[in-house]
């Protein structure tokens, strides 16, 4: 239960929005034109509690592509499709300390290190069940709809750009095929991965998705079970140790909450059994995390005593 009044949340996010609105540190991802044309001023903070109260400030309706934040939810679907042992045989749960797009596998097991870096995410996506590409995509879209609470869509220009420029991701897929970690249908797996990254969401959607994870897999607004509650601990564990890439350790120390960032500037944070937080601001630091997003979450965690090991 909350140890503070709901009104305090709205006041806090408005104050933080005001405080960091003019912070112009960081850079917008520019590896594809669809990301490069984002407005650096876009900024929103949203909170959805486990009992369904919504708080928001800023550009909460602005659509953008979900990018790496999708990895969290696709990991949940892979666990439901294949079970814990099968998923763990293909993707590890070890933080890397390397960049999100590092071309590296665990030497001993030949698995990608974890599902939050690109290699591990591609391997995770390759585990999604379905007869052919369309059924797999539709199952994935249905999964996202359960978390968001309404239908969403793939941004076609982003998908096409990711697909034509994604040589690094393609190289990782080939490396994993070489080691037998994924099957020969690598083009299908890569397309599905590029599609999941190109899903359009807004900041409020992300907060609802995070709140669903906070609420044992049940969307707090429409009460739909988005993912089986038995996999919440798997999802939150890898978010906690790996969700912020090579900043995960410092994040765990300072903020102390499971989180996931994406290259379009989104950031979700889960406060188990209490709330989901989302921040959207496209200016990124050198590790690929939203600059304002990190600052806002550090302060929110501190102000409300949200660190998991706070005593
Ligand atoms: N589409 C991006 C990629 O695969 C996602 C990475 C990210 O958001 N960090 O490189």
From TrEMBL:
Catalysed reaction equations from the record: L-glutamine + H2O = L-glutamate + NH4(+)
Pfam families: Glutaminase
Xref: Gene3D superfamilies: DD-peptidase/beta-lactamase superfamily (3.40.710.10)
InterPro entries: Beta-lactam/transpept-like, Glutaminase
Entry's Gene Ontology molecular function annotations: glutaminase activity
Keyword RNA-binding on entry: no
EC assignment: 3.5.1.2
Keyword terms, alphabetized: Acetylation, Hydrolase
Record-stated family: Belongs to the glutaminase family.
Subunit structure: Homotetramer.
Protein name according to UniProt: Glutaminase
Taxonomic placement: Bacteria, Bacillati, Cyanobacteriota, Cyanophyceae, Chroococcidiopsidales
